[in-house]
C-alpha cells in the first residue's frame, strides 16, 4: 500500500511537468496494481 501512495505522488509530480521514469498515467496504473496487490495480501493473511 505504501508503494501505491508513492506512485500516486510520482503521478502528481509528472502532472506538473516533470516525468520521473514513467509518464503520470503509467504511474496511476502502477498505483492501481500495487493497491490491488496490497489488498489481496491483506485478505490472504
Please give a quick description of this structure.
With 45 residues, the protein is an all-alpha fold.
Q: What does this protein look like?
A:
With 45 residues, this protein is mainly α. It has one domain (2-44). The chain is built from 2 helices and no strands. Helix 1 runs antiparallel to helix 2 (24-44). The longest helix has 21 residues, at 24-44. The radius of gyration is 11 Å and the shape is elongated. 9% of the residues are buried. The mean pLDDT is 89.
Q: Per DSSP, what share of the residues sits in E-state strands of 2 or more residues?
A: under 5%
| Count of separate structural domains | 1
**Main beta-sheet annotation:** none
End-to-end CA span? 15 Å
Query: What proportion of the residues is helical, as a percent range?
Result: over 70%
Give the strand tally.
0
Amino acid at each position: 500500500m505504501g508503494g501505491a501512495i508513492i506512485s500516486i505522488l510520482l503521478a502528481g509530480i509528472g502532472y506538473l511537468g516533470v516525468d520521473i521514469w514513467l509518464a503520470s498515467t503509467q504511474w496511476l496504473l502502477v498505483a492501481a496494481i500495487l493497491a490491488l496487490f496490497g489488498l489481496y495480501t491483506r485478505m490472504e493473511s
